[in-house]
Fold this protein.
Amino acid sequence: MVAEALQSGKPRLLLTAAVAADVDMMTGYDVPEMVNSLDFLNVMTYDFWYPSASGGETGTNSALYNRAGLLPPQSQYNTNWTAHAWHNRGFPKAKIVIGIEPYGHGWVLKNSSAIQPGSIGNTVAPAHHFSDEVGMAAYFEICEMLAAGATRYWQAEQKVPWLIIGKQWWSYDDVQSVKIKMAYIKANGFGGAMVWALDLDDFNGKCSNGGGKLYPIIATIAQELAGIII
């Protein structure tokens, strides 16, 4: 890439990798070689907890921190643990990019009065019209559920929301939790944030907690990290 840039007179292309947050998968990477070769390490700090892999237990999709009562490996299912695990394996913090997901995961509760994270779901939540995948909803579909009367809750330890609509339990990120994550990135000296995927953010301005903006998750990242208003 350096040779190509010199020949073309254009800026050198960046080389990045999207990598797992799972501790067992981390051991399969050649970290010293990656440090030497990559400009950034995009860590997929989401999908920590989702219906097909949870044994029916609800949990937060992209927690920032651990919560009381969780033991390994579940106590490792959070952004803080994962980002520092990659750093402890030799990756410079400035090259570590934190993943943000504009979507949520959902279960149908076995007992509608048991609503805290860790409650048991009988089955996977049904698919929505746009995302068309059971147990998954785009951020704007999350906002549609809130507009339809869902109740939003806040997990104070993990710094993320969840909602209840009927017997459905959904974990997701929103503007509030993303702002907290951006402050965390800056305070800890990490390299930045990346999003998977752009088309799952609210491209119609439906989300009231986004102030009516288009792409409120992406706009929050841009404003909090770079001072860019979009």
